[in-house]
């Protein structure tokens, strides 16, 4: 998205090239726009380092190096370091949640989210104001609330995510009926979260952005929402408009590549390169044309993955064991071994040629020894070879988001597994361990009443305000920000390991703190 004002232009998250092992492509296709012109901007804003937002090749080739980068206040220097490697030299480090006035009366504010589960160590949103018109580009950030933006004045344009951006539940080895049911739950939660954000901000106009990707490789084609699957987590912009109408939404505006919206305090006028309804009515044909046009790109990427000279077990031991030795909270949170089955063809078939275990309690990487494991991932050996060849520090923001694997697990979802494989560097691991340490020690003392229950105000997962996101059905509470569920009678988290909630019935006596006898 490019924001143009009389005081300057801001290019936001320009993503054109395929991401995640050539699995994700932007849809609709924006590669045929005039990027030579679009890249000549005053400012560049990249929300976070996910590769469907941070397109290094496109940033290097098409975005002016005279642009000033509006840099979120992230806990590590990775984004600035990567942008400098691409040739950018001008940076404005925006203090978190503070309005910064640029030249000509253009104002911006960036909210950085910094938990280990926010993007790859950080996600962010950009607020912009010029001549009384205010815009929030929330993209796919998930703040606990939007009050910091609403307090700056009425927002006229709100851009936000509505579609899925993960591998769950498609890659799990489950019966199709279960996959569909879990997918439908996730799809519904995505929309519920979007409606809450829209209701929070009450902007004049709402723009569905940051999704969905499309999948052009033949082995991933089934993930496109074109097969009538109610459990597909990748609904497109036309589906958003339809679902938004069901909850009374009438102010949605869909943008295609090349669309332009003129926003004033009085209204918005949009022009499109082709009629929007006609475009989405022909979605399958557009995807099929893209698939043929992009096929050489996909095949070229696949050909680059093989590195048979790499001893995968030896390299995983060398890189991962020192991090296991330093991990306290994450290793304890995983609580068991995680197995990688490496196959010789692709993630959906082929014989296993090597099974490697990352043993979190034992702090070692070793051959699989026929034991029970917490998680099992099955993927092509060449993909692990490529990750090791590149020295990739984030297997989540590469292998897992590619959906080129299958998975099975025992028990609940475990966020610590994915936190670890997002932190395969000293800097990232130390930050994440410190974050978990700080939150382990923090005590959330404030309680609220929800229905017949008194519960702690902040969700144990990522501190969402349960007075806004908490929904109780019977003895279960769901935090609708991320869909996490809790059994209120025991406090147990039903979604993941750990994260116990404090709760008791409103008509019962307040329980004594842990370790104290009731008086």
TrEMBL record:
Source domain of life: Bacteria
Annotated Rieske domain residues: 454-494
Classification via CDD domains: Rieske
Transmembrane regions: none
Segments forming a coiled coil: none
Molecular function per GO: 2 iron, 2 sulfur cluster binding; metal ion binding; monooxygenase activity; oxidoreductase activity, acting on paired donors, with incorporation or reduction of molecular oxygen
Keywords associated with the record: 2Fe-2S, Iron, Iron-sulfur, Metal-binding
Tagged with keyword Cytoplasm: no
Database matches in Gene3D superfamilies: Ribonuclease Z/Hydroxyacylglutathione hydrolase-like, Rieske [2Fe-2S] iron-sulphur domain
Short name of one Pfam family: Rieske
Database matches in InterPro entries: RibonucZ/Hydroxyglut_hydro, Rieske_2Fe-2S, Rieske_2Fe-2S_sf, SCP2_Rv3818
Official protein name in the record: UDP-MurNAc hydroxylase
Source organism phylogeny: Bacteria, Bacillati, Actinomycetota, Actinomycetes, Micromonosporales
